[in-house]
């Protein structure tokens, strides 16, 4: 079947020309000479009519080009070919966590009373919560992390849930969910470029009949901005 599909895929190059097919399936070498006994073989043979080709057997160990995409290489070989993004501030973050008094107090509490903080562990002097590095909620690296996981090309300006999940795989701090949600909501690019996923608003409705003059003076419509001054509202 693979032989038939391959020849049909390249038929615009193969029709009217003699060519050679190399395969590690030895029985295919005699496919055109053997006795056809099944309807599937008859169908395959009918699709190969009109092509001039010869099938030659090539052992799998010698047919390396065909197996290049299907063989699983080791991590060492892949690392020489594939580049991975590296956050340059990782060492700075670890040094900051090691000197943070808030984290030091938590480490001392976890070491003295392990049952008081379920899910927290200390590894190599670092505090982890469910295998995620714990940082202070007042860490100066948090804005950089939010920028890295959301606003960079790797972050892709994803929504709250995807941004939070990517960060939560390796990092944890108290109030992390709210901080990520507020950052995503305040992203100017997301507000300007993304369409609203909610139900469209209805048509404008007329104002009710006022009870006195100058009750309704003006209605101010605004676009989606990151900040809004309440003093701009007029009535």
UniProtKB/TrEMBL annotation:
- SUPFAM superfamilies per record: DNA/RNA polymerases
One molecular function GO term is:
endonuclease activity
**Which Gene3D superfamilies would you find in this protein's record?**
1.10.340.70
This protein's source sits in the domain of life called Eukaryota
Reverse transcriptase RNase H-like domain segment(s): 1-51
Using the record's annotation, list all stretches that form the Integrase zinc-binding domain: 142-195
What keywords tag this UniProt record?
Endonuclease, Hydrolase, Nuclease, Nucleotidyltransferase, RNA-directed DNA polymerase, Transferase
Q: Does the keyword Cytoplasm apply?
A: no
- Protein name (Swiss-Prot/TrEMBL): RNA-directed DNA polymerase (Reverse transcriptase)
